[in-house]
């Protein structure tokens, strides 16, 4: 059995076959699911720690500061120290709160992001589940997080929380449209919703180059709308610390607060992964159609490095946006969506359909 | 039609202003060696505070150990939280005149809110802001300071 870091298909198949040979299919599937779940849990903790550190450093550099630099070299252990502190904090019981919903809300938020990450291809064959409607699944599942936010705001018995949750609801309902339509633009070009096929089709050039102008517009709209959907600045009205203290998670403490915090960063990671996969080719190396030698050299860089690099780039773009612009008012937020993004998006799909019909893409 | 044109001019002028902001932060990001903040504990030896910094209330003395305080008590009456106590005494000068001088100008740093009212209202400019800011002590009594130095006298020409 030969494994390579360029193609994980043979590895996953070998694991599956060995398990099925040793036990009944039920137990084999159960073990596989447990292993993948544990792997994702570990991945969550790791990515969360790295992203929080990265955000603080990027923010510091953009404001001409140093950022965390006390715990470990360049402050790399700062987030671990923060995490330990969060774990040791008291879970405050809120008087007259809806206890069940209050405790349930952080789990709904984290489960929504957990479900979304299952469909993301990390490398060739490294893919928890490959739906043939992968994009639809991700869009549908990532919108579930707002249920958790609404529950958190409602059950906290706090006006600030409720206002924050309601804002979040209005925001997600609006911006979900733009996310869906900008992805639809690429689906028109790709002709499929399956992530593995979308990545495979970009072996002759990433969609942002293949689809040129409409694809680029779609990417910009996706970036704006997905920033809004993950409740990140400048669209962080649901938290709005200067107006609502912390919005929907005002009353949460300790590990429950950490869940919301982690979910925010994981949602950013998932959104960046989708942007990287759909617009920038996912794990597909940089290929130019016809340049065989060049393509061959690019293939030597392992796919997960390409994937991680592109995702990091999109995350950096989102952080750049967050630390540059001031927070929008709720009416400005809705104006931006309904008067600008949505009409532009609809016209953009029309242009993309025309481009595909005329064969004007590369 | 004009609203149609306005829509697009708004859109593109908005995009341009966004781009201006992104350029600024982008430049900052790619020059991480440019730091505007003070690296405090490291540069403690050569840290200089700016002129308007309000560290603590001090009473400047000149090289002959002379201050400008007449002991009028205006700072004491103006202090909103009673952090100044002026204890004055009457003495007889060589010419036989009875004058008021300060015995102790007591300043409670622990109660001061750094509002600057004492310094602004002092008729003879006897008080000023000091640049010292490391005020942490283990004993609260150390925060009560006597601002006039021992043996100091009032500068000639300030009285009344």
What does this 3D model show about the protein?
The complex is a heterodimer of chains A (362) and B (160). Chain A has 15 helices and no strands. With 362 residues, chain A is mainly α. The longest helix of chain A is centred in the first third of the chain and has 38 residues. Chain B is α+β, with helices and mostly antiparallel strands. Chain B folds into 2 domains: 36 residues; 99 residues, 2-Layer Sandwich (Alpha-Beta Plaits), CATH 3.30.70. Chain B is built from 3 helices and 7 strands, in the order H-E-E-H-E-E-H-E-E-E. In chain B, a hairpin with a 5-residue loop joins strand 3 and strand 4. Chains A and B meet through helix 2 of A and helix 1 of B.
Summarize the structure.
The complex is a heterodimer of chains A (362) and B (160). Chain A is an all-alpha fold.
Topology (elements, then pairings):
The complex is a heterodimer of chains A (362) and B (160).
Chain A: H1 9-22, H2 25-62, H3 78-88, H4 99-117, H5 134-142, H6 145-155, H7 159-190, H8 195-201, H9 207-210, H10 212-229, H11 241-244, H12 254-280, H13 292-299, H14 303-322, H15 330-358
Chain B: H1 2-29, E1 56-58, E2 66-67, H2 74-78, E3 84-92, E4 98-108, H3 117-121, E5 128-130, E6 144-146, E7 153-154
Parallel strand pairs in B: 2-7
Antiparallel strand pairs in B: 1-5, 3-4, 4-6
Which CATH architecture of the largest domain in chain B would you pick? 2-Layer Sandwich
Roughly how many Å is the radius of gyration of chain B? 26 Å
Can you count the beta strands of chain B? Answer: 7
Helix and strand sequence of chain A: HHHHHHHHHHHHHHH
Q: What percent strand of chain B?
A: 15-25%
Instruction: Detail the poorly predicted runs of chain B.
Output: none
Write down the overall geometry of chain A: globular
Mean pLDDT of chain A: 84
Number of helices of chain A: 15
- Give the radius of gyration of chain A: 21 Å
Total individual domains of chain A: 1
- Main sheet attributes: strand count, strand direction, barrel closure of chain B: 3 strands, antiparallel
State the helicity of chain B in percent bands: 10-25%
Report strand order across the widest sheet of chain B: 3-4-6
- The number of distinct structural domains of chain B comes to 2
Could you say which overall geometry of chain B the principal axes of the C-alpha atoms support?
elongated
Structural class of chain A: mainly alpha
Q: Based on DSSP secondary structure assignment, what is the total number of beta strands of chain A? A: 0
Largest beta-sheet details of chain A: none
Contiguous helical run count of chain B: 3
